Amino acid sequence: MKNKEIKVLLAAPRGFCAGVDRAIEIVKKSIDKYGAPVYVRHEIVHNKHVVESLKKIGAIFVEELEEIEDKTRPVIFSAHGVPKSVPAEAKNLKMQYVDATCPLVSKVHREAENLNKNGCHIILIGHKNHPEVMGTMGQIPKDGIDLIENVEDVKKYENKDNKNLAFITQTTLSVDDTKEIVDSLRKKFPNIKEPKKEDICYATTNRQAAVKKIAKECEMFFVIGSRNSSNSVRLVEVANNSGCPSATLIHSETPIPFEKIAVCNTIGISSGASAPEVLVNNFISNLKKKFTLKIEEVEIIKENVTFKIPGKLN
Questions:
Q1: Which of 5, 76, 128, 211 is deepest in the core (most CB within 10 A)?
Q2: CB 27 within 8 A of CB 44
Q3: Comparing C-alpha atoms, which of 305, 303, 253 is closest to residue 102?
């Protein structure tokens, strides 16, 4: 097994996006500025390794503000964004907060507010109960927005009061699946208003395009990421749909299927936008213990996006 040579196609870009980088930096800088502990509402990004490493330096993760015992300590809102009720609750509790919402998610929030102000009824394409979706839906009154998850939902959807419809999307969806849903919305409601600029974020689009480019050449494809990370799960689907017979999500508890890899000549590797590169390196190191690897990085585009840290942390 050890001397079996396997070609590894390594997708690029992969891993951390600018929004995730910024969110992690916000937690670290908050601890530097305010001391430990600082509280974080919801996982700052969906990755166990990241969450555990931030716990070690003084971050305490909670799901709701009421769980916070010491209300004099600052709280950080995760990269996924929060409903408007959350900062309002923090103000009522006289809590200091830092918002680490990804700027691309904030853009969708502003879009929702503006459409609502202009009398549009909003259809949000996204996944139920995902924190980003809950945050976006919480920007406007409940009766002004409906969630659609798939083409079936579009078929069932009725515009009873003949409202002016507009759609927006979660930022981490599958580009291809979303296109299908959007096409069926346009077909059913020809006057539906669409976003001026794509809502699916650049990082999601780039990572999916990189996987798509190499998946058909691979007998197995591995995406390093967490089960609750929407963009990681989408990458597995993209690999499967792009001609790879077997795509797997490798999360913190996944055993590596060495026996299955042993019969492959070419495998692919990528990682979700909230997975640190160290996890990719660890995975490759484990493979090197069993096989001889010939690694080829396939880069489709260079990313140089960065987002500013809130001024109060500088």
A1: 211
A2: yes
A3: 305
Residue 123 maps to a domain: yes
Tell me the whole-structure pTM to 2 decimals: 0.94
Given the structure tokens 């990082």, which residue do they identify? 203
Q: Please tell me the predicted confidence (pLDDT) of residue 253.
A: 87
Task: For 35-85, write each residue's pLDDT tens digit.
Answer: 999 999 999 999 999 999 999 999 999 999 999 999 999 999 999 999 999
145 and 166 in contact (C-beta within 8 Å)?
Answer: no
Kindly state the DSSP code that residue 194 receives in the 8-state scheme: -
Of 199, 233, 260, the domain-final residue: 199
Band of pLDDT at residue 2, cut at 50, 70 and 90: low
Cβ neighbours of 46 (radius 10 Å) = 28
Give phi and psi for 150, each to the nearest 5. Answer: -160, 180
* CA gap 196, 240 in Å, rounded: 31
Percent of the chain with pLDDT over 70: 99
Residues 79 and 136 in one domain: no
Mapping DSSP to helix (H, G, I), strand (E, B) and coil, where does residue 84 land? coil
Instruction: Give 139-183 as a 3 state SS string.
Output: CCCHHHEEEECCHHHHHHCCCCCCCEEEEEECCCCCHHHHHHHHH
Tell me which of 43, 67, 132, 303 is the catalytic residue: 132
In the residue annotation, 113 being an active-site residue is answered as no
Domain boundary among 168, 199, 230: 199
**What DSSP element (H or E) covers 123?**
strand 120-125
Measured CA to CA, the distance from residue 207 to residue 273 in angstroms comes to 8
Coil, strand or helix at 61: strand
Residue for token pair 């969450």: 51
Distance CA 120, CA 143 (A): 11
Number of domains composing the chain: 3
**Partners of 12 in the β-ladder:** 299
Which range of residues forms the domain containing residue 248? Answer: 5-16+202-299
Which of 203, 174, 224 has its CA nearest to residue 8? 224
